[in-house]
Amino acid sequence: MPGMGGPIMPMFALALLGCLGISLGSTCLPDAIPEDQRQNISMNGISMPLGLTVGASSAISEMYAILASEILGYNVVQYPSPSTMANLHYLSGCDGVVPVEECTWPALRHVGFELWESSWADPDWLAKKEQLGQRSMQMEGSIGFSGKEGLYVMGPARQKSREHSGLHLAYYGNLNASWFHPENYAANVSQVDINKLSTCKEHSLAGAQLYGQVTGDADGLETVDGVISYKCWQDKWWLAPACRSNPGSCMAVVTAQGWAFRELTQQAFFHNIPMAIANGLDFATYVELNAQLQSFLFWWNPDTAFVLYDTTLVEMPPWNPSEQKQGILRSATVVIKLQGAVSESYCHCDSGSFLWEGHCEVCMEGASCLGANRLELLPGFFSREEAPGDVYNCFDERLCPGGPPGTCAAGRDTSSVACTDCKEGFREGNDKVCEACGDGDYAFFGVVVALVFGAVALLYALLLNEAKSKQRSSTLVVAAGFQQFLTIVQMLSVLRRFEIDWREPFASVLVFLEVLSFDVEMLSAHRRTWDLRHGTVSCVTQLSPVGLFTFRALMIPMLMCVALVVHLCYILYTGCKSFKTSNLLRTIGTMFLIFFIVLFSMLVAPYQCNAHPNGKLTLKRYKNVFCDREGDHLAMLVIGGFACSMPVVFLALCTWTVVLELPRRIARSDARFLDACGFLIKRFRPGMEIASVFFLIRNALVVLCPLLHSTSGQLLMMCIILIFNSIMVAFFKPWRFLICNCLDNVLLAGMLVILILGAISVKDSDPGATMVVVMLFLMLMCLSILGTIGHGIFKHFQQKYRKQFRYFLCHQKNAAGSMARLLKMELEQRLPGTKTFIDCDDLNDLTRLFSYVGQDTQTFLVLCSPDILTRKWCVGEMVTARANGVDSLLLTWPSFVRPDEKFIAKYPTIVPDINELTKYGISLQDVEEALRWLAIVPGQALPEQISPTTTHLMVTGLVTAGTKAPSTKLSARAQSFTSEYGTNFPVLVDPMNSEAVAAAMVLSSLLKPKLLGTNLPLPSIQLSGLEVAQEATLSLLICSHGCFKSEQLQTWLLQASRLPKCCMIPVITEDAFEMPSPAFFAELQTTSKLTDDELRLYVMVIKALFQEIAVVFVPQNYASTHEDLRLRANQAASRLMATLQPLEDKVAKLQTRFKSRVTTRAADGVETDVANILGARSGEMVSKGSKDRDSEEASTAGEPFLCANSEQIFEDADELPPVIQQAF
């Protein structure tokens, strides 16, 4: 029967009220048809009264009964109906909710006025409706108003919550037990008389199976006799997961006859609400219990049962028709009004809805429903004509102009999802317009293939030229800059995947940059290419989405094959006999490295989906493919999973190469390997080759950003990646050149600005998640502040009670650098767990120099070399130590003089740049007071001759200074030094040069751990007055300034030259060292105490000595950090472990060769000119270990006197004294 219009309803209401006073058996209306004149209706030849089902709409049912009986003249019988589901079955000929087989026809009940949308759309009913066929009841219209059902909360519970916590209980999010405790304000199960409740199985079986399917909550169900039912506590209460472990904490929710049991259980599960749900014995008990509890309940309106209790409907998530069709009932139910009509052709929906499949659907996003069944799509949205309510988002208004369902832009295929495809014979051109394919499109495709071959060939040639020629720094800068440019372009192409409404002209810039990034997707069937031609794959061949994705996935192997073809062509062209694998690997690796983001980004496309208003998901780049893990999508997931292994394997190989293999190959000097992996390491400074792996990992993470669900999450992840990247670049400076590090940070800063501005236009769909992230970072900021403050407090007390440095060595680099290094090593060994400050190891920031002295040092030790007071930085350190009361000691050189008042008065003229300390808060007056303070600082004199013994005593005195006088008795360690004298590995050093002796001791200390476990003896310092041991097999000569004038050193060298097995290597330990010159030998003639024979032999020994390449070991140098000195000691150890020639043999060969030359020249009548014999070409070096000396003499005009690393080579032997000339 048709429903009644809204304006007529008040009149019927008044008429009904007027009938209330009429006695039973009389009529209501004055012109009513008498009861004995009324008739039955006839259905299929069976006569029966008109049957009405009466439920919540009792008033409307009563009015209709009056009209049907007194105006129309029918006999009317009213049947009570417990629920809408029962009502649907009654009207279909079923005696309640029973199987179809038990239903009879014709039905005894014919008209009902109560229908709830949740029951009408129930999957069980829809299935039964299909079984019933034409016997099923029919929807004829609406009675003119809608009702609401669901979870309600009564006033007392809301009031209690507001008073105690301010929590609003009428919102589902505030009922989540993970965040709040709504059970504190609601009635619990203990307050309900369990005898007034029915068992779960009496009314609640229908929704149990559906609950298990959509939630997977197996603990909330049980199977009895093969029937799935709700698992209830005490057989009465179904407990939600949020309170199942503690039933006493559950909110009691009482319904009746199983009403909404299905909806309430799902809402409790999905929204984590701590509910216990039960059924009252009957409707009256249901009303009685909820009136007592005044808490939460299932209710509906219009209904008067609880209007006096200030009930409020709990707001659930907005109605989701897609979920409702799947049986997911977590959202609110919606009841839509229909305008009354006498036939279906006259049925129309109100504004905001449209008629579909016999009932009104809510107008989806992207559509406009004006009423009267008119549905129009907004620009940028699409639905098919046969399914107008199935709305898709086109994500581009140029594809979908809007209008009636089934409308696409010109030339686009309306059968494709969201107008994605152009019609056959068309391809996408400018502004997304589909244009007819032309002949040029086919030619363009061939041109692109040719260009790919040409580009790979060009890259191969450039890399080959790079390998053959010596790279200039300018060329490397250009190459690094181009690599950074391509990387940032590819990052911007990833940024285009974010759902951000970029405006012009930046949107066009992103399109242009995507082409520059060599994104091979520009050849896809649905994307634009270059601005001159718009050829596409769709004009050449029709590929399915799976075929197109497979083509892209094979792009990497195809590029590798192209590189292989180019490499083979090169080998054939040049006629090379070897395969030259390094050239091929270098080319393939460079392609992977440069285009890593683009190639990886193509492969993760099956994991990126777009959501549409109809609840369906499609791939972002393949919009015809649904994200359902079936069919095409499943095939693409499998292909993508295998294809993604290629970049992952490349990343793993690069990591293995840089981290494990590269150090081993460098140690073996494998130049071919270094050349093959040059694409990874050449652009980074030595020691930072790992940066190439770091950048690859960064690129991989950038590619994964679009996989996040929300745009805000994508922006957040990318910002974190780039910020971390910027910090790493600023801190480690990985690029080989400073300008490249600066460029990298500038580009990263620009990207961050773009991301921040893009985030402004993002409409975040999940503000709650955004707030969680904001709070996390706010907490991180607060923790960082607290951590910094705590660190400062800790440092304050640490500096007060335990300083960072036990000693600070203030020294003049060129006069005491080696001694400072020796003292640092000795002090740290003597006092384990402490640190001694020395600038070349511990000073990274010059501005912190004085703070190290004043705040982080326990004892300030000044190495008082003669000119230390002329060094402004050293004086500044002294001023700071005095001002901060740091314990101080002086270690004075023999020639050091403490400053007097005359010196202090002239100090500004002696050190003119002392005023530069003013910028650090140090005035001239502070300097003068510090110089006076030196007179009272306790000190210790440096021994005139440094040896292991005197050094040990000196360090002991420094350590015990201020506590007791240094002991003059040798300790066990000092005595162990004496036992080392005369070993088989003497280190020869000028004993009068304290810096040289200190350098020798440092080198000896670093060499000993390297030689342990070998067959070589351990080095020891040769003491003055002792002879070189006859058993000596190895020796080091410490070359310092003026060392060859030392009488002691002369004696040792002559002794070593007579030993049959003693091999010697020179070690340069001072930058001021100079090779012996003619002037030196002339001076030696007059000053040396050697006899003529000894002097001639001495000159020959020096010449033989420098046939070995000298080891450079200069502790005085500012760049000589501890690690650098260890590396140089390793080099010295390697030289010592190699095969060496004894010094005696070298001297003998030199004497033999000299005599041979003199004899040959005399036989030829050539005057023997020592100048011709000793004349040497600067930069020429004697080759050591040569087996063919005669051929070498024939090809050389003259033998060089010293090796190539000497600073001066004899140019004119006539300048030599006669005695020395006679040596040759």
TrEMBL record:
InterPro entries: Toll_tir_struct_dom_sf (IPR035897). One of its GO terms (cellular component) is ribosome. Keywords: Membrane, Ribonucleoprotein, Ribosomal protein, Signal, Transmembrane, Transmembrane helix. The chain crosses the membrane at residues 442-464, 476-495, 553-573, 585-607, 634-659, 690-709, 715-735, 742-762, 768-794. Residues 1-25 form the signal peptide. It comes from the Eukaryota. The keyword Nucleus does not apply. This is 40S ribosomal protein S6. It comes from Durusdinium trenchii.
